[in-house]
Amino acid sequence: MIRTKVKVQIQSSGVSADGSTLKLSEAIAKKWKIPFQTPLKLCFGTGRQEVTVLPSSQAGVLQISTSLASKWNLSANDSLCLRYKPSSRAIYIGPLIGVMVSTVFPNMPDKPFGVNTAFCRELTETCQKYGAAVFFCTPKDMQGQSDMIRGWHYTNKWVKSSFPIPDVIYNRLTSRKTENKANVQDFIKHAKTRKDLVFFNEKYLNKMEVFDALKKETGLSVYLPESYLLRNVSILKTMCSNHSVVFLKPVGGSLGKGIIRINRSTGDSYSCYFTSKSGVRKKTFTNLNDLYDSLTEKAKKTRYQIQQGINLLTVNGRPVDFRALVQRGETGNWGVTSIVARIAGDHQYVSNLARGGSLSTVKDAIARSGNPNASGGNSKLRRAALKIAKGIETQVPGHFAELGIDLALDSQGRVWLIEVNSKPSKDDNAPLSVEGKIRPSVRKFVQYARYSAKF
Fold first, then answer.
1. Which of 147, 172, 382, 417 is the most exposed place for a label (fewest CB within 10 A)?
2. How many Cα atoms are found within 13 Å in the side-chain-facing hemisphere of 135?
3. What phi and psi values does residue 96 have, to the nearest 5 degrees?
């Protein structure tokens, strides 16, 4: 693909005040065979402007009027990609990326997006480097059926402005409740009426949907622990008969919330462990009917996936699992960007950082486990993560640009899938990031956004 970057210059003279004429570097015009002095169309997201192009002797620049810059919220020295489509006589600049975020704190000018502010700044800087523009919008901004949307962008400070509906929308809403609001769903439907719009990670993944989908994919069953939707006491009895440990996981849960561990003890008694921020609460039942009855109240509000327990690799007696970040890159193909080990906190059986877990490199965690069966675990984890991402692409509806895939190694060195997350964390405590450097995960996202929007 021919790729051309232009630097936007805003002119008060030499171009028309109404935006209908602009100046473009002669070398770029020649490269793309863009005709001068001919009616054309300039496109930025859903923005459209009839234009006539005049030659500019300045290399690598696109000069536009103040009024057009204001209309589309383009800033001086924005670096954007440019392409020309002769069949529609249209010049496209972009890509324009809109990121859906859950909340903004306008009274916190230095951290308007809370713990995600550093990521938003990093994404802005990466877009500038690779030729793209980005803004951030909240559910309150998603109103009506307009082709413009309000959002925040960074120009030495965070400013709220209006933008065209973008080329790429990236869903970073961190709550299912927020995602399912009527105005958010209406906005998504309206935006998707644009045939060329690219919508990344438009929804949360349902645990059972993922497991049921991956069962259909050849070669992936080896990674899937036995699991079912908990519909009745018979399923509970069968699973507890087959496995000494099972887990009940809220189908729509995240951050380790609401996970229940059931251990089969001697004498047909069962110990139930419930997670909480303060630790783990234990309750013992003499039979599974009583245990199931105690869950009935919870099950009225929450659907549970019942899953085979796995004899996890441990470090100092604490369970370890692994989070693989798998992303599409500049050629559109899936690749493993990173894998980190997550070691459960004291007296916890889930490894989430929100539950006191800690991070480690895969190499270090495997070495500290002292288990020779875990040798070669890093390559096994990478291979499994890549296969699972491709399985999601094939079997689950939607367009996913990145996935957080939680994996485990058991004491025998076998890889298991724990769950797949379509909203991997981007907060300021992101795993093992290097301060001051653009993380590969952010760079890959921008490159894929550019690729998928055909820039």
1. 147
2. 25
3. -95, 125
Pairing of strands 39-44, 90-94: parallel
Report DSSP letters for 154-196, one per residue: ESSSEEEEEEE--SEEEE----HHHHT-HHHHHHHHHHTTSTT
- Tell whether omega for the bond before 225 is within 30 degrees of 0, i.e. cis: no
Q: Which DSSP helix (H) or strand (E) runs through 124? A: helix 117-130
For residue 69, how far is the Cα from the chain centroid?
A: 30
What would the pLDDT profile of 62-79 be if each residue is shown by its tens digit? 999 999 999 999 988 799
Mean pLDDT of 9-15: 77
- Going by DSSP bridges, is the β-strand pair 47-56/21-25 parallel, antiparallel, or unpaired? parallel
In three-state secondary structure terms, 69 is helix
Q: Decide if 251 contacts 259 (C-beta within 8 A).
A: no
| Per-residue pLDDT, 242 | 92
Q: What pTM, to 2 d.p., does this model score?
A: 0.90
Structure tokens at 448: 């894929």
CA separation for the pair 283, 300 (Å, rounded): 20
pLDDT, one tens digit per residue, over 205-242 is 988 899 999 999 989 999 999 999 998 999 999 999 99
**Any idea which of 291-295, 383-387, 450-454 has the lowest mean pLDDT?**
291-295
- Cβ atoms of 213 and 391 within 8 Å: the answer is yes
